[in-house]
Automatic annotation (TrEMBL), chains A, B:
Function: Catalyzes the transfer of the alpha-amino group from S-adenosyl-L-methionine (SAM) to 7-keto-8-aminopelargonic acid (KAPA) to form 7,8-diaminopelargonic acid (DAPA). It is the only aminotransferase known to utilize SAM as an amino donor.
N6-(pyridoxal phosphate)lysine modifications at: K289
One of the record's GO cellular component terms: cytoplasm
Originating species: Paenibacillus selenitireducens
Family: Belongs to the class-III pyridoxal-phosphate-dependent aminotransferase family. BioA subfamily.
Positions that bind substrate: W58, Y151, K289, G324, R419
Protein name per UniProt: Adenosylmethionine-8-amino-7-oxononanoate aminotransferase
GO MF entry, a single one: adenosylmethionine-8-amino-7-oxononanoate transaminase activity
Pathway in which the depicted protein is active: Cofactor biosynthesis; biotin biosynthesis; 7,8-diaminononanoate from 8-amino-7-oxononanoate (SAM route): step 1/1
EC number: 2.6.1.62
């Protein structure tokens, strides 16, 4: 794209666009990167400069950009029909995707309710759980439980069960009351991490839930969790034992376990779904992002048959679940999701990515000896580390240094899209990333890290 | 599609899919219509039987299904790049669409914030308005006002400002408190409708708002309305004078006017936006559905510059709007929306649809003399009527007769997709509908109406 056209677009971007999660003044003196092409893990700006999309465009992209089979699936579906309503009408891609989702997700989930994004998948889960208890005669079960550090989206219902104050505190007067339980964040153990201490931490976190459930289960509809990784809350990877304990407590005390796999679903953690690391099935499961391989908006909320059954009755009994979105079950998005699942099978994507994940493990190890680095962690194609002024004592950098933002900017110069969460640097790689790309990404990141931290040491 | 395959899909539909807004037991003995093809206003089921999509697949479709220019726009965008994140990165379709939206929407709206569906467009509006007052030092302005009969979506924030109890009453414990004002529903005047009485009704409805604002404006962030037509609330068409009055009151008392044009936007009412009927500009505007010509999920919330400006500051002042969705500004959806706006221009869509709207007026007049029909009404390509046992006295049919549902079923047999709201029968036609198609649709509908009501007379 010629420079004049670029300039024109940049001015219009400033004039008309309000970007999400962005302090727009940060971009007064500096431009948003204008992307013109994407291919595999690479993005190309309008000057042709390339960048590794190390965070899969917000944890969405699965098979890389521009996958020819996905494009062909879109073309094929458009030859048949584009969008039609999903009430009263139905269609093959919507039906077949529902079947496949029931098959690939953890056991016991039997029905699929579509919506458009991760936030609405969570809203559906909350409303479904709430209405279920009303309809089986346990009207006092109206409250929800969430974990500290959790993030479930930005609509009011999703924010109400969110545990990151930066995003949520402002909106308190609009939120329903929900109950926070501790996160078994093993980073709390600092340098004292041993298997025993981890187990004790998990036991403590579960005790908090048990105490709450014992006292108030009769008021509780469900508990919502991001299985294995609290993503937006800082890439907190926690032990699978916590999930197993939670599953037992929910069964024992009759509280729905709602698993939000919007971010973790579809192979990113090394398993198709993060719940598999713990060998558990939730009562309700939320999916989005990777569902369409990161191509277009689509979400699904799956539930157990007994939940569905509590809504299934004569119309006059008024048990209908009155929830829906205009674009529910968009046929093009469903066709894309189906093709993505075919790709998983035909190209043994999960198995293939295992080699890459092993390389990622080796490479992440090389960070541990670098200055300012602590808590290097990984699960499948996700890896993270935290930067501290003094990592030994976990003394943070002054927040006005905005280390993460500096890493972001320096990363761009090195051809990396990094998007740190505070001072947590992370990768969330497409499953198509090759071992040698991972080596290159890590080498570049370490160069960036030295550049950013050297003047501060 | 052969019958065996159809049967297989129908069984899977029952086994795996939970359809939106649907009492699934209604479909125990009866099938969802399995759609296999769509073209213009027509849908075709797996047996090749055709149906008029008289409600534009939930008020979304604008130019008809399968428009070749839209398909080509998708293909073109996919050749460039598919989905990329819209924070830190930007792209031509997202920028150009924002520019165009600012240009085509009512004056004074300068910034575009994207999201994925109508509900999130409303959630963004609510949170934006709320945070605005917090940041300009008017912290007590935390409440929202809505109209009875209103519908703004199904996420908890949108439900909190919803006025249709059927959808919303159940979830009360999860909702924030909002304040209901009367709807200037001229149907209240029954057979006594005169311009004077309509004006008095509007004046009364505005008085209620004035009284509320006088007492509590210091606590009020905004009032949200569906301009001109309360759609899901029963296709309530109200006088433009109400909107003008509301605009004045909002300015006078410093309360945001939030216009939800998710349903009415993009030409459906005979103007590009329903606000134009009243010649007003809101402070915040919500768009979705027709934004992509009904092809795929995309939404936008536009606001005045002063609102944007209240968030624009040094990062450390903590004024960032922390809202975003993974698929924000999806490039494919933006490219489709741009092509739809080009179609509006190149094919003079609004002007063309005027002839069709005139035919619709003539044709709707033929309903007025039919038994059981009352309150025939129309705005642009939207028209509605209510069915009563006795239309003179507005005595309804017994609700367990489910007249609307009967109309729906009988409509299918006649090749019509109708989706009555209770006993309100309506059309929400694609702008490409021709006068002769309208005649055919109305003729079929009247046949259906006679079939359904004759045995009840
Ligand atoms: C006026 C209005 N606002 C908001 C919505 C919600 O949109 P969505 O279904 O895309 O969430 C609708 C949907 O019918 C609507 O009619
Ligand atoms: C775990 C989790 N849940 C829900 C969401 C919300 O999804 P969306 O941004 O599509 O609304 C996210 C998005 O980042 C997420 O990570």
């Amino acid at each position: 794209m010629d420079r004049e056209r670029q300039q024109e677009l940049r001015e219009k971007d400033r004039q008309y666009v309000w970007h999400p999660f962005t302090q727009m003044k940060d971009y007064a003196a500096q431009d948003h990167v204008l992307i013109e092409k994407a291919d595999g893990i690479m993005l190309y700006d309008a000057d042709g400069k390339s960048y590794y999309d190390t965070i899969s465009s917000w944890w969405c992209n699965v098979h890389g950009h521009g996958n020819p089979r996905i494009k062909e699936a879109i073309r094929r579906q458009l030859e048949q029909f584009d969008h039609i309503m999903f009430s009263g009408l139905t269609h093959q891609p919507g039906i077949e995707l529902a079947e496949q989702l029931v098959q690939v997700t953890p056991d016991g989930l039997t029905k699929v309710f579509y919506s458009d994004n991760g936030s609405t998948a969570v809203e559906v889960a909350i409303k479904m759980s709430f209405q279920y208890w009303q309809q089986i005669g346990q009207q006092s079960k109206t409250n929800f439980v969430f974990m500290e550090n959790s993030y479930h989206g930005d609509t009011i219902g999703a924010v109400s069960v969110g545990g990151v104050d930066l995003y949520h505190a402002m909106f308190k007067p609009l939120l329903f009351n929900a109950i926070r339980v501790p996160s078994p964040d093993v980073r709390q153990l600092g340098n004292e991490r041993t298997p025993e201490r981890e187990a004790a931490l998990v036991a403590d976190a579960l005790d908090a839930v048990r105490t709450l459930f014992r006292e108030r289960a009769h008021e509780l509809a469900g508990i919502i969790v991001e299985p294995m990784i609290q993503a937006a809350g800082g890439m907190v990877i926690y032990p699978a034992a916590y999930l197993r304990g939670l599953r037992e407590l929910c069964a024992q005390f009759n509280v729905h376990l709602i698993a939000d796999e919007v971010a973790t679903g579809f192979g990113r953690t090394g398993r198709m779904f993060a719940c598999e690391h713990a060998g558990i099935s939730p009562d309700i499961l939320c999916l989005s992002k990777g569902l369409t391989a990161g191509m277009m908006p689509l979400a699904a909320t799956l539930c157990r048959e007994e939940i569905y059954a509590a809504f299934y009755d004569d119309y006059a009994t008024q048990k209908t679940f009155f929830h829906g979105h205009s674009f529910t079950g968009n046929p093009v998005a469903c066709a894309v999701a189906l093709e993505s699942l075919r790709l998983f099978r035909d190209e043994a994507v999960l198995e293939q990515s295992q080699a890459a994940a092993n390389t990622l493990t080796e490479q992440m190890n090389t960070f541990t000896s670098l200055p300012h680095v602590a808590d290097v962690r990984q699960l499948g194609m996700i890896a993270a580390l935290d930067l501290y002024r003094d990592p030994e004592t976990r003394t943070p950098f002054a927040s006005d240094l905005r280390i993460g933002t500096r890493m972001y900017h320096a990363g761009l110069a090195e051809g990396l899209i990094l998007r740190p969460l505070g001072d947590t640097i992370y990768y969330w790689l497409p499953l198509c990333t090759t071992p040698s790309q991972i080596e290159d990404i890590v080498e570049r990141t370490q160069r960036v890290l030295r550049q950013v931290t050297a003047p501060l040491s």
